[in-house]
Amino acid sequence: MKVLKFGGSSVGKPERIRGIVSILKNYYASGDHFTVVFSAFGGVTDSLIEMSSLAAAGDDRYGEAFQAFAKRHQDAISELLPEGSLRTETATQIRKSHEVLKNLLYGVFLVREASARTMDYVLSFGERSSSYIITQTLKSVGIPAEFLDARKVIRTDKKFGGATVNFDKTYAAVRKYYSEHTDIQIVTGFIASAKGGLTTTLGRGGSDYTASLLGAGLDAQAIEIWTDVSGVLTADPRRVKKAFTIPKMTYAEAMEMSHFGAKVIYPPTLMPALHKRIPLYIKNTFEPDFPGTKVSEESSDGNTAVRGISSINSVALLTVSGSGLFGVPGTSARLFNSLAQSGINIILITQGSSEHAISFAVKPDDADGARRAAEEVFAYEIDRGVVNPVKVERELSIVAIIGENMREQPGISGRLFQALGKNGINAVAIAQGSSELNVSVVIPKEDENKALNALHEAFFLSDSKTLHLFIVGVGLIGSTLLEQVKKQNAYLRERLGMELKIVGMSNSRKMLVDVDGIDIENWQEALNNSGTDADLAVFVGRMRDANLSNSIFVDNTADDKIANYYEGILDESISISTPNKVSTSSSYAQYLRLKALATKRGVQFRYETNVGAGLPVISTLRDLMDSGDRIRKIEGVLSGSLSYIFNNFDGTKPFDAIVMDAKQKGFTEPDPRVDLSGKDVGRKILILARETGIPMESEDVSLVGFLPEGAMEAASVADFFSILKEKRTYFQELYAAAATEGKVLRMIATLEGDQASVGVQAIGPQNPFFGLSGSDNMIVFTTDRYGERPLVVRGPGAGAEVTAAGVFAEIIKIGKFLS
Ligand SMILES: NC(=O)c1ccc[n+]([C@@H]2O[C@H](COP(=O)([O-])OP(=O)(O)OC[C@H]3O[C@@H](n4cnc5c(N)ncnc54)[C@H](O)[C@@H]3O)[C@@H](O)[C@H]2O)c1
Ligand SMILES: N[C@@H](CCO)C(=O)O
Ligand code: NA
């Protein structure tokens, strides 16, 4: 024998009921013995409550509500049953029954009162109507169905509105009834009866309870709860998009999950089934072939001990603290007694072994009452100053990981707190019962979604991590980066288990934020079609409000104001990767603050492409420093564009034409004057100096320019080019002077001791920078360990592909760090 139960929205509309009929037809055809429990049609219980409260308030609009109720059922009959005697019989029976309800409501209207006892009777019409209509429908398709009013078998006390079941009487009645009735029993959920034939109800989740009681009474081989979701999921799918069905879980785990608001099952319903060790299946009426979730004594055989993740959306945390609590037996008894007397339910409790403070969580509405109760009971101690006034913290949530085998696996809580920490989520309080069935953490409410997703990823998707990217600036580097990500996405998914989701994008005109992800295949179109004007403050605000796990901010602009947002971004525990040198080359104090903030928030601030583009310059320098080497000197050709320009300046083409060429090849800054003035190189040597620990400011870098007078005063980039053109002879002479000595021109940056300088030099063939070509950068580190023969990093140090690749690699590194 199997007990099936269909409820709520899965019996909402006639077409859904037809789906159920076809499921039951298959059952019948398979020869299985089964009985089926139905709840009222979706929304009907609420409408019955509404019409009786209207009637009780003397409002005659209860009549309209009743008419709608009656019509809904008659319509269902016409839709579900073919024309003929069965339909007529059903319609007549239901009409008769509804006549009784109508009179009952009139009675309520007259006496202006709907007692709990009356209400139970009123509500019974919901289940009685639905189950009867479905019984008749099943008969019409050839299934030998029989209507069973559960009041005949389920016995309770007279606690109307949520009666207590008498198990012995119920099980005996069930067994007897089923032995005498061999047709397929279609049973009303939720309702029962007390002595004297009084109608009672079983409280919330009552229809599931009915199924569980029948299952226990009949020693069923299984109970199937059919609903509109695919079993119990690892987390609430509305909050965690990647939640998936838990194939198997234990009764205890199911209890824990449902305590935490997994609405699929209601804990008391599980008790009778649990006592009899009857497996319970949660199945989806929309997807009847999907196995759903099996709840039994067996736990899942998966490799994680965590079965699910859940949360309580809104709680307040109260803390009683003070020296007066230490070593005084009975303190907690007094506190909790007083809360109990005020009718306050406690959701979570923690006390550290110093016994200095007891914290407990309650529903937000109970917070004030709880505070009063606690302050009252400790009034004497508070007065004497040995207990502090009660602290109340609001706007909190509880997230919990649940699983029966967690107690056998070390490292679970480590992973829990690591996932929270890396996403900047503060644990306000922690509770773990010694049963270790659940570890609960109180966190700020605004972080609830992020926490659920981060934990879900940590425990269920360790081989698939989603990084959420917010990209500002989609010029040369930004657009190249997006194209590289587009091409590499499949590899990242398969080989690194990493998914790069672009959730925010901005150029200087428009911006777009979509937490579900922007289609990277058509990112240009998506951004162009966005109706939102670019606004950095708004963009950063949206990024903060989205509060997504593993968020990374990528600044691909040369904007000098964006850096002002970096502190706020890092403070929100969002990592940053940027080729933009502004933040690292502005004030030393800001540079230090950014680095400190990243460390404090446990996130990353990366800018390798600031020097030598994709070449490993900063990371090499850090490795040298970290391993205890001492930097004696750094020399370098640090500008890709100037390198290209001087490498190609052989007297055959005019200087301005080569500069234009470098700009078109994407080597120069958006404004090439930044390169030619030496400013860009100055920033780079400044950054390297700071990385070695020297507190240097930009004005400390001695910069000797090589441009002719007036060039830097040009009003625009175009004017600048005009001046370069006018001054062709000047550059030609510069070249010739070096060439006659067999030398070439290079802009060289040097850091020695705490002195940094930048200038153009004419160098001969014995100089290591002599042989550079293309846009090569070359950085020469002379250190204690690399003293005789220095360490050299060399290669193209500017250009779209190599720079974007450098940023891309940093994003991956941040992703790995966050895992
Ligand atoms: N080109 C290289 O080889 C190279 C190498 C290393 C580092 N960088 C750095 O990379 C950055 C980008 O360089 P690029 O060559 O791609 O320049 P680019 O001019 O092609 O791109 C920058 C883009 O950012 C946009 N932008 C500017 N301010 C913005 C704002 N406030 N909000 C949104 N968008 C904004 C601009 O409209 C432009 O499209 C610069 O900081 C540069 O120093 C470039
Ligand atoms: N404009 C820069 C880009 C790399 O930072 C250069 O030419 O080196
Ligand atoms: Na680099």
From TrEMBL:
**EC number annotated for this UniProt entry:** 1.1.1.3, 2.7.2.4
Pfam families, alphabetized: AA_kinase, ACT_9, Homoserine_dh, NAD_binding_3
Q: What does the record give under GO molecular function?
A: aspartate kinase activity; homoserine dehydrogenase activity
UniProt cofactor(s): a metal cation
Which SUPFAM superfamilies does the UniProt entry name for this protein? ACT-like (SSF55021), Carbamate kinase-like (SSF53633), Glyceraldehyde-3-phosphate dehydrogenase-like, C-terminal domain (SSF55347), NAD(P)-binding Rossmann-fold domains (SSF51735)
- Name the CDD domains for this protein: AAK_AK-HSDH-like, ACT_AKi-HSDH-ThrA-like_1, ACT_AKi-HSDH-ThrA_2
Domain ACT: from-to ranges: 320-397, 401-479
What reaction(s) does this enzyme catalyze?
A: L-homoserine + NADP(+) = L-aspartate 4-semialdehyde + NADPH + H(+); L-aspartate + ATP = 4-phospho-L-aspartate + ADP
InterPro entries to which the protein is assigned, alphabetical: AceGlu_kinase-like_sf, ACT-like_dom_sf, ACT_Aspartokinase, ACT_dom, AK-HD, Asp/Glu/Uridylate_kinase, Asp/hSer_DH_NAD-bd, Asp_kinase
Gene3D superfamilies attached to this UniProt entry? Acetylglutamate kinase-like, Dihydrodipicolinate Reductase, domain 2, NAD(P)-binding Rossmann-like Domain, VC0802-like
The record's subunit annotation is: Homotetramer.
What PANTHER family has UniProt attached to this entry?
HOMOSERINE DEHYDROGENASE, PTHR43070
Function, as annotated, reads: Bifunctional aspartate kinase and homoserine dehydrogenase that catalyzes the first and the third steps toward the synthesis of lysine, methionine and threonine from aspartate.
> Record's family?
In the N-terminal section; belongs to the aspartokinase family. In the C-terminal section; belongs to the homoserine dehydrogenase family.
The name under which this protein is listed is Aspartokinase/homoserine dehydrogenase 1
Q: Please tell me the species this chain comes from.
A: Neolewinella antarctica
